[in-house]
Design goal:
Elements (H helix, E strand, L loop, with lengths): L2 H36 L4 H29 L1 H21 L3 H17 L3 H14 L6 H28 L6 H4 L12 H21 L10 H21 L1 H32 L2 H33 L1 H21 L6 H30 L7 H25 L4 H16 L15 H9 L1
């Protein structure tokens, strides 16, 4: 197989595995909360389910990244797929609180396992075929765009499928039998997610080969995983560029938390009632994923024009401006304010979509294969922690422009980190800023 063919094959397989993993999650976005409600769960119980998911993902994020670096990418992806399959089955068919809570916790474990192995497999494969200086950004951008597209399609299908079947949710009419019916209309998209997960598992097992690794026994895993995690944390602590990337990921998490927490209520206010607002928000979420996919597709162009580091600065700055527009229009009604708010919403996702591939291209040139998945897990952990903290602050602030301004300030702070570039490279590594700036000139 020639080098060009190997690179195209790796990109195609990375895009496919990204779609197959994220499509089930998209299918569950729209019906999940309504399904819990129709099962008779209270709002407090539903909040507990989501807390179980988030806490499990945070606790397991770093150890599971280390497992990927020790045991291999494919083994961890298969485990993530199996956990997601079990989680979607429990969520779709569960009728009691403890089953649903367990399903969400298992889903969080699958999310933690999946936060790096596929991307690490792609980078390992490309660098094995074309050397350490191989182009990574194009494939990373396509994978990110594919992820956003899968989430967009999944959200639309998951929200529309019960209605297309003539089985739209009517909690008032069916709540009395919610605990006796095993399969409810809103279960169908989640069950479909489980079916797609089976396809994901088959594809990973058949299409993602990786170099053989030495056998890893229990003693080796217990010894090597903590050491790998420690090295990943040290990298973020001592390498200026990696620290900047991690802080930027946290800023993106704060922006996303702001948009995701405030947009449903704003959609309901615009629509006039909660039910119509939920449909409007599903459309907005889909549009956001489409804008994110477009931003990811444009990431290589942005890097060629501005250089990798400056492209991140511009992209995050655009997202911060989008949040400023949302803040400025928070208390106004009418066609013009709503149009400006729509532009702001699009800018947030477009900017975050364009920043991600360029940040990760820089990250992968800074870390070794032995710690690649761990570095991605640290990045994911930073995003989740700042998102959680920002969400708490946003929830405590009064309604109006102030919560939106907080999200904008967090993202603007992440953008400002990229004003200064060209720090000395870490020992034994090329200077990614200079390399990418040269490629962009």
């Amino acid at each position: 197989m020639t080098e060009a063919v190997a690179l195209r094959t790796a990109r195609r397989r990375y895009v496919t595995v990204s779609v197959l993993f994220w499509l089930p999650l998209g299918l569950a976005i729209a019906p999940q909360l309504l399904l819990f409600t129709e099962r008779g769960m209270t709002l407090a119980a539903i909040a507990g389910f989501f807390a179980a998911h988030s806490l499990t993902a945070v606790v397991l994020e770093l150890p599971t990244g280390g497992l990927s670096d020790v045991l291999g990418r494919r083994a961890i992806l298969v485990t993530a797929g199996l956990l997601d399959l079990a989680a979607f089955t429990m969520v779709s068919l569960g009728t009691t609180a403890w089953v649903l809570a367990l399903g969400m916790a298992v889903k969080g474990a699958g999310r933690a396992l999946s936060s790096g192995p596929a991307e690490a497999w792609y980078v390992d494969t490309v660098q094995a075929a074309a050397g350490p200086d191989a182009d990574l950004r194009t494939g990373l951008a396509r994978g990110s765009a594919a992820t956003s597209a899968a989430l967009a399609v999944g959200t639309l299908v998951g929200g529309a499928l019960p209605w297309l079947l003539g089985l739209g949710p009517d909690p008032g009419a069916r709540l009395s039998r919610a605990t006796s019916d095993l399969v409810l209309p809103l279960s169908v998209p989640v069950l479909l997610a489980a079916v797609v997960d089976v396809v994901f598992l088959v594809y990973v097992l058949t299409a993602l080969p990786e170099p053989p690794r030495p056998p890893a026994g229990l003693r080796a895993v217990l010894r090597d995983v903590p050491a790998t995690v420690r090295s990943g944390l040290r990298l973020g602590g001592h390498d200026v560029l990696v620290r900047r990337i991690l802080l930027s990921a946290g800023a993106a998490g704060g922006a996303l938390a702001t948009v995701e927490l405030l947009s449903p209520g704003r959609a309901a206010a615009v629509a006039g009632d909660a039910e119509t607002g939920a449909v409007l928000f599903a459309g907005l979420a889909c549009a956001g994923f489409v804008c994110s996919a477009l931003g990811s597709h444009l990431a290589p162009l942005a890097a060629r024009v501005a250089g990798g580091a400056h492209a991140v600065l511009i992209s995050l700055g655009a997202g911060a401006c989008g949040l400023l527009l949302l803040a400025a229009t928070a208390t106004f009604h009418g066609a013009l304010p709503l149009g400006l708010a729509a532009v702001g919403f699009a800018l947030v996702y477009l900017g975050l979509g364009a920043a991600g591939p360029n940040e990760n291209d820089l990250l992968h040139r800074r870390v070794t294969p032995a710690g690649r998945a761990t570095a991605l897990s640290v990045q994911s952990l930073a995003l989740q922690l700042v998102a959680g903290l920002t969400g708490l602050l946003v929830g405590a602030l009064p309604s109006g422009p102030l919560p939106w301004l907080l999200g904008s300030a967090v993202l603007a702070a992440g953008a400002l980190l990229w004003i200064r570039t060209g720090e000395p490279a870490a020992t034994g590594a090329p200077d990614p800023d200079r390399t990418l700036e040269a490629q962009g000139s």
